[in-house]
Amino acid sequence: MNPLTVVASGISRGSEDSADKAYGKAYAMMSWFGVAYLAGKRWHNLSEGERTRVMISRALVSPADLLIFDEPTTGLDLDGRETVLRELSALASRRDDRTMLLVTHQVEDIPAGFDHIAMMGRMTEHECMIYLDAHPRVYATLDGNTTPGTITFAGPIGEGLTDERLASMFGISLHVERTRGRWKAASRSRLA
Fold first, then answer.
1. Domain with 192 in it
2. What is the pTM of this model?
3. pLDDT digits (tens, 9 = 90+) for 156-169
């Protein structure tokens, strides 16, 4: 199988598009995403980063209303990572009625234009009570829930990515900042 066929398979079965038109759309998406040069290669010869970018092209060519990107920058070199983040940011900025869900462990991998966040983690009961007193908008169901995977915040990204919240979740002193739409977090000990 070649990458062009993989991307074309993202176009819904039963679509009114002819095979030629589907392949044309697939190739256009690969071009937009910077991977058209891979179209004729064999799938098993692609690097992990190339496969990731092809699979993201496949997701984007589909007519799906919900796109889920699970750690889309894993295994990518710096150029590949920045390409993925730039294109996801462009897609988010278009506001084309599609919902995009991005799963990541790195705040640096959140593309500009993503405006809401659901954070999962663990808080001690004491931290949870202090946090709930200071931030009454947080779900009341958090009261005392220290289970890993608990949603500790859901809402606007600027309200979610704070020094206090991330420090509480990870148990280390952190500084979070946003520059030109991109997020960054660093240990305070590294900032000194």
1. 115-192
2. 0.76
3. 999 999 998 888 87
